[in-house]
Amino acid sequence: MTALAPLLRPRRLRPGDRVAVVAPSGPVPEERLRAGLDILRGWDLDPVVAPHVLDRHLGYLAGDDAARARDLTEAWCDPSVAGVICARGGFGAQRMADLADWAAMRAAGPKVFVGYSDVTALHEAFAVRMGLATLHGPMAAAVTFLDDARTRESLRATLFAPESVRTLGEATARPLVPGRARGVTFGGCLSLLAAELGTPHARPSARGGLLLLEDVGEEPYRLDRALTQLLRAGRLDGVAGVALGSWAECGPYEEARATLLDRLGGLGVPVVEELGFGHGPTNLTVPLGVPAVLDADAGTLALDVPALA
User: Fold this and answer.
1) Per residue in 243-278, pLDDT tens?
2) Same domain, residue pair 76 and 202
3) Are residues 182 and 293 in contact, defined by beta-carbon separation less than 8 angstroms?
4) What is the 3-state secondary structure (H, E, C) of the chain?
5) What is the pLDDT of residues 124-134, one digit of tens each?
6) Does 148 lie in the same domain as 240?
7) Is 1 a residue whose pLDDT tops 70?
8) Is 117 a catalytic residue?
């Protein structure tokens, strides 16, 4: 199998750019959305909210599948929009992913796309359907984005001055398996990556990739199950290195850590833990589809190129 190749990087944002806020997954609390929009306006962006962001469907979706897919498609195809930022995660991105008009979105060209958690399904879709690098980062109505200055600054710097954030990591980062590796970043939420197996957006190979993994609310035995599924499916064959983010509400961390080491240690590649992205108190923005060097001993992920062009 061929190795993962770097993906097309969209252009960075500029002051005055219009960004669309969409909700491909769960329902969005209106007060948190308003607060997030205020932050984006404070960055001199012009945020516009997609028509169905505040809809409710089945109690756990932000509108029905067709409406959520239409919001993403129309936002992407709007020539006045320079980037699309998800409002929140939750559940439902997989339900609408195949309903988006990927042909029209390809024709509209590359744009910034930001999200994490359930949005992992869309990161995979953008990689497979459009060959586009995306940003695994905080969402406009996410609590961490609203409450944590480090989280906000990481996204702001990545959007406007990506050359200033070429080395990523937190003081908490340390080697789970020592070593250094080069590859192309990919990944996201562990449970979503496992759920994507067998779908049209599951990439056939991870060879030469630097895998980012994090999750929330999954007990160690469930982390074991998802990792084992990826391993049995060959999804981790040829991975060059692994960067682990946060494991909030995944049981005592030492138990989760032991499971991660048990399942990933056998890959024989460097693994760094607590790099500072995901559902934890700080959610650093990490590009997906960009060549980088993972140094587990130093606790860093150094990008070969800025996240955005």
Assistant:
1) 999 999 999 999 999 999 999 999 999 999 999 999
2) no
3) yes
4) CCCCCCCECCCCCCCCCEEEEECCCCCCCHHHHHHHHHHHHHCCCEEEECCCCCCCECCCECCCHHHHHHHHHHHHHCCCEEEEEECCCCCCHHHHHCCCCHHHHHHHCCCEEEECHHHHHHHHHHHHHHCECEEECCCCCCHHHHHCHHHHHHHHHHHHCHHHHCEECCCCCEEEECCEEEEEEEEEEHHHHHHHCCCCCCCCCCCCEEEEEEEECCCHHHHHHHHHHHHHCCCCCCCCEEEEEEEECCCCHHHHHHHHHHHHHHHCCCEEECCCCCCCCCCCCEEECCEEEEECCCCEEEECCCCCC
5) 999 999 999 99
6) no
7) no
8) yes
Are residue 126 and residue 207 in the same domain, yes or no?
no
Domain boundaries, position 117: 18-163
163, 194, 218 - which closes a domain: 163
- Whether 31 is a known active-site residue: answer no
Exactly one of 124, 214, 218, 274 is catalytic; name it: 214
Q: Is 124 a catalytic residue?
A: no
Which is catalytic among the residues 117, 154, 191, 246?
117
How confident is the model over 185-194, as pLDDT tens digits? 999 999 999 9
CATH of the domain at 35: 3.40.50.10740
